[in-house]
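Issue: copy button drops trailing tokens. Both records pasted manually instead:
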Amino acid sequence: MRQLSLLFACCFALLCSCTSSTAPATAPEDATKQPHIVFVTGDEEYRSEESMPMLARMVERELGATTEVLFALDSNGIVNPNVIDNIAGLEALGKADMMVLFTRWRKLPDEQAKYILDFAESGKPMVGFRTATHAFMYKDDSLRQHLNNDWPTAVFGQQWITHHGHFDDGHDPLTSVALVENTHSPILNGVQPFDAYSWLYHVDGGDWKINPKTSPLLLGTSLRSKHEEGGRLDQFPKTNPVAWTNDYKGARVFFTTLGHPFDWQNDNMRRLTLNGIAWALGREADIPADGFNPAIIGSYSPNNSGFGEKFKQGMRPKEF
């Protein structure tokens, strides 16, 4: 397993002025209070600006939480996930009880990134989706390059490596999802096998090992694989974990590499996520035997994934 480098530790100290919490990994100190959850969006591919507000409304109903959803904004206050250096309102993390992160290769200025980094060091619970394996990208900044790979590996369990291929994105599911055998986590209450539109991320196997602190919950099998077509399954096997738990400095972390906008149209994806958020908050006893109610509040008709101008344009945060 790759070890975090001395540079990582030194640079993190420069960027983070907080002191790490020693809270136990079993649960937050007060699991009965009304939690305040901040959802941080900012990815230019998977429409997190659409899925996370939908999920936040469900979290408020099912868990009695208060929520805030933060967005990448342009200079006019319009949601634009192609803006990689601005996520408005990150100071809200200073008083949050949980951070939900769905960003992709952001290059945030120090004064913004610090809120995310400080929260991760606080010992409070976190949830991450798909591209949080590559939440940041600082190509030419030696003091911050550890955030590209080492940081997500430590916090969420793995960095970005490769995937098995898009193949007519959004037309048909590309990953068959199954429960890990003999796993009895309450996160899986009511969750049934399903097909996901997310193409499978490689996180474990070949030259790569997932963070050993993780505990897998779901396995995905690629239904069509560029690595199979290229004869590389010895390095990138067709079956890999797609959901797991992690322990980061005493904090409970739930993570899934799923998150294509069409995945959220499946009840099992929404139920899995609600259960995972409850577990991370230390409220596993509140998870019903058949899982939380996955019914969507209002409607959810997301744009397909993709780059460029494929997001819903001209919208302000309150319109989501």
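Record 2 (pasted manually too):
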Amino acid sequence: MKIKTLLLFLFFVFNAAAFSQNKDTVYGWTKTGFIGMNLNQVSLSNWAAGGESSVSATGLFSGLVKYNSKKEFWLNNLDFAYGLIKSEDIKVRKNEDKIEFTSQYGKYAGGNFFYSALFNFRSQFSNGYNYPDDSTVISKFLAPGYLKAALGIDWKPVDYFSLFVSPATGRFTFVNDQVLADEGAYGVDPAVYDALGNKITSGKKMKGEFGASLTALFAKEIMENVTLASKLNLFDNYTDDEKANRLNVDVNWETALLMKINKFLTASISTNLIYDHNIPVPIYETINGVKTQTGTGPRTQFKEVLGIGFGIKF
């Protein structure tokens, strides 16, 4: 994933730099946010092409409190998202689940550069399942949970774009469920068993890593009533025992395009690309016309959501 990650990063930076001509930095406290509900409904009756009726709803909240001066800045961002979907003959399932908090402080270093410290926490609200199996839990609150603390340099050419580079980043992965920890879920050390299957040592509930990270943030109203926000996080682990893992950069890239139709109606498109070499993803193959899981392995994960709903930007 190393070369692909570099290309993604260059594409992100060059596109952001194209907007970085205006230096209209806003000083003092700024408080902004968005709260909304996206709805999607499909109804079919005697539909020859096939398909299923379904209804889904996703609640969203994003809040930003930011302080800017010529000598320092402090940014705090909180994001929540939770969504459910129901289709014919299938129970209600979640299709979105996110908790994320980021706090970053910077002290002026000269030019457009700041000495900076960053703190980030990510997890989810409720249990996740490997559908169509809806009985085996594969994730829950704080399983996984991710905590990152980093020291580095932040480049802020304009108030809507920043590039933070840290050669000293600590990242901690939490799996606060012993069953999942024993399985070695999300990269923690699994349980050790003897030849008879008796557990000798329980799986670890936490994994610590130390490495380098990069965080690029862009958020701007690119045209009237259209806002583009994108966040790219990269992490390279210095301490992994396996050289193959050290050569793979972990990626989490989120992008959202928010379009305001009127005072309350909104339309949005959001994407999320994730690659983590330590997270095994189910691999499926079609065998005799049946989709069958044949194993697990690292894979690029991608999610895209198109929504129309009610929203208030403040």
